[in-house]
Amino acid sequence: MLIVTCAVIIQHGKILICQRSSTMDLPLKWEFPGGKVEPGEDDALTIVREITEELHLEIEVVRRLQPVEHDYPAFRIRLVPFVARVIGGQLRLEEHADARWVTVDELAGYDWAPADVPIVEEVKGAIRF
Ligand SMILES: Nc1nc2c([nH]c(=O)n2[C@@H]2O[C@H](COP(=O)(O)OP(=O)(O)OP(=O)(O)O)[C@@H](O)[C@H]2O)c(=O)[nH]1
Fold it and tell me: Which numbered atom of ligand 1 lies nearest the CA of 34?
């Protein structure tokens, strides 16, 4: 099973969502940014590292949400979401096609990576701004 972290980054009442590039797997799907946990790595450190590498943002984890397990045709994934806030940096995309700050009500209007759909639902129900 592939263990992947992702961040629900909240700033000024909006959430940062990212679109995978056409050369990544799940091309052009929207996701919460993040990446794979490396062997022996603490997942709360993975998410901070990945957001710095991919977005040039420094984040602080606020809390952990419910992990989601999903079967893709070629592999099984456990997606571990963290609510986080920005504490530094300037948004600059290293590998994504696009990134947007959206309201919680706008989340449903995007074409999400399938594993993210339950996380979108949890965020809609559980995040208070
Ligand atoms: N980062 C991220 N990956 C997701 C999400 N949902 C989802 O199914 N995935 C899948 O999780 C896997 C890991 O994604 P990734 O390519 O971002 O991981 P990474 O940055 O560590 O990869 P790399 O080191 O190979 O570049 C991919 O197969 C991706 O499609 C999500 O919300 N965020």
Answer: 1
Atom of ligand 1 at shortest range from CA of 119: 32
State pTM to two decimals.
0.94
> Domain range for residue 73?
2-102
**Nearest-angstrom CA–CA distance, 45 and 81:** 13
Strand runs labelled E in the chain:
2-11, 14-19, 30-31, 34-36, 57-64, 68-71, 76-89, 98-102
ipTM: 0.91
- Residue 59 covered by a domain: yes
Residue 122 lies in a domain: no
pLDDT in tens, the chain (129 residues): 999 999 999 999 999 999 999 999 999 999 999 999 999 999 999 999 999 999 999 999 999 999 999 999 999 999 999 999 999 999 999 999 999 999 999 999 999 999 999 999 999 987 665
Distance 62 CA to ligand 1 centre (A): 21
